[in-house]
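Q: Got a minute? One more chain.
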Amino acid sequence: MRILRFVGRRLLQLIPVLLGVVVLTFLLVRVLPGDPIRSILGPNATEADADAARARFGLDQPLWKQFLDYLGGLVSGDFGTSIQSGAPVTGEMALRLGPTLELVFLAVTIAVLLAVRLGIWSARRADRFGDHSVRIFALLGNSVPEFWLGLVLILAGYAALGWFPAPSGRVDPDTDLTPLTGADLIDALITGNGPAVSSAAAHLVLPVLTLVIGVLAPLLRSVRASALEVLRSEAYAAAAAHGLPERTLLRGYLRRATLVRLPSLAALVFGTALGSTVLVEYVFSWQGFGQWALRGLLYRDYPVVQASVLIIAFAYVLVFLIADVVHAWLDPRVKI
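A: Always. Here it is, folded:
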């Protein structure tokens, strides 16, 4: 009940936060230079054509009227109409969000598991060859640009070795996959489409690996530092001096205390990865949320930019809520 009350209280706190994001995004996107109507009509359009297009999208109304209309649409789940495509933003976003969430969720999950395993392993071998190797790997992974790393993996994994499919989509078209959530691997599992499961998993390997290497370094360094702190603590030294088995020391003293700081950092990494996957999506032709949001920004597509910022803000708040609950579960000293 205590956790449920905490979650309910935090969900209520979401309302003013998201309202602030809505107001700021609505105003700031209109400060940007450029006219979205002129970008779709081209330089040869007459002023009458531009006025008609502005009236169609409600951009001829006073700013306060546009905001109230936008806010009223949000209440009913309507994010507006894309100026570029003329299609509802909600539908476009539903098609784009699933593939990106699948990509980011898999990458962050794998990165967290690797960071825990390698970070603790490295701390227990501090200043040895294995520890130095892990630290150098983490430093290199954090230093290499993701788009360059993605291209290298394509050259090695597809062009040279032929182990993975070409970076031309998310699943082979001849698998007849029925789209449900937009996340192809999940859709293939739900529909029991074996060939689509294999194809979607194969297409995921290289982009997920690119993201994993990019986000692993901060997680790994945090876990290693926390593990070293625990290993050098008096409590751990006393437990080891009493002759407790290695397994008990690892599970009861080291692992849980090491993971206390990880949820907040993992939430931060998840939010950052969600907003920065655009380069990975371009390299692998992923057609996800990042590409859609960037295209909206380039063409001053107000409804698309507003919706993408709001979704990223909502994802940030939600993952930090989950991180706080996990943190409280790992550390009994935290009161929620």
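A: Residues 40 and 84 are 6 Å apart (CA to CA).
Q: Perfect, thanks.
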